[in-house]
């Protein structure tokens, strides 16, 4: 929601104008690795396995919430440990969240205000506030809740990017804040944002001694709350090229510091394509096809006057996002905010959650779980009747977790997209697809791998993200035959002196330039006319990376592409 979540002395409101422009026609862009995998990170880190989330080698589905303002719990002055932060209130809130089966909590990790500000002036970081966030991480960990901290705000709440623009001598507001995403107009905005996330990722928690970038209590980071590049031109509203370039640059920067955590863009999912809001320079598909983004997000608020959707229309909207996320973008879908007002909330939640699960949604987070003075529009307090519906949803999501990672749907998006999205939309929004049935892959047998039938063929897609001294490769092995392959070994050679640091969804050995990759239990079967996907991270010398020129699968030569 384009909410303006503010300090207790202010309210948040919806910008009045919503553009209804033309639609972004979706185009696939191969997405690289998630961020990490069971073979690549310490126990407890979440990662992307194809179009779903995984944790410790198993599928992971979650039911979450937002308590965006937990960082403000305390007086905001006085002694850091006993006054500035209210540890009792923080712990009590996490205890309530745990009791109501909240698995993941999305929250703000930004403010430029004097009260509880993380960065009150440019480049000056408030140790007291960061110490409070250290404690928030510890409390979340003690209550078995993972966190999705958000680095910055598009909206004016807590200063947001308007403050960063002001630091550079520019005006914010709508649509002036679009300058934040344009390096030619605000190069200092790029620098100050990078400096901030660098500080956060490399901060050492003074309670645990663990750097934020190394802490599995963090489920994922989000670049920004609801970013847009709106009303700069009709083409930009539809295509989102400037915002996508910003997401690519900041995503690559963050991945260079923290390769272990998932990363999201924080999008709302608005667009004329979906009949929900307008085209605002942040198209759902194109922006989130960024190879540095690991999951998609959307924020449905169907009972807002500008949306005015029925329950059934909202179900279709969410299914359309899930379909595009899984089948076009090739990534998990996170419903990062949602709620309803002026309707029977329990009825709506039950309808939305059950349909979300049936459609294969990967994670949800309602807006917002409060601890006092409930907001009349969207606030939810412990004991609210709709929380019984949420707990049932959480239980069902937990029941889907801990299993062998599912293989329903493609594991990578198309490999030959146009370089820019087309500008002409269809006349009506596409109908959402029915969800594919859930199938768990078969564990490969202990007998020798099956050689692909002669003449059936195999193909390998190797998508490279080259950062000079390091690189990621997202690799899809395709079985073009009519029989399944049970157990596989892929052999190829790097073009230079590359070395593997980590690999996910597979196992690898390296001898010189030659790499031998074998399946994990959950990637052992390649169905007829199907595929499996794995990824790796490695070290390299600048200018030496490239796509290997030959691949063999169980001894048979494969085509490339």
Automatic annotation (TrEMBL):
Residues 396-458 are annotated as: Disordered. PROSITE patterns: CBM2. Pfam families: CBM_2 (PF00553), GH5_mannosidase (PF26410). It catalyses: Random hydrolysis of (1->4)-beta-D-mannosidic linkages in mannans, galactomannans and glucomannans; Endohydrolysis of (1->4)-beta-D-glucosidic linkages in cellulose, lichenin and cereal beta-D-glucans. One of its GO terms (molecular function) is cellulase activity. The keyword Secreted applies. Residues 407-430, 442-452 have a biased composition (Pro residues). Residues 451-561 form the CBM2 domain. GO terms for biological process: cellulose catabolic process. GO terms for cellular component: extracellular region. It comes from the Bacteria. InterPro entries: CBD2, CBM2/CBM3_carb-bd_dom_sf, CBM2_carb-bd_dom_sf, GH, Glyco_hydro_5, MAN-like. Residues 1-39 form the signal peptide. Keywords: Carbohydrate metabolism, Glycosidase, Hydrolase, Polysaccharide degradation, Secreted, Signal. Its main location: secreted. It is found in: Secreted. This is CBM2 domain-containing protein.
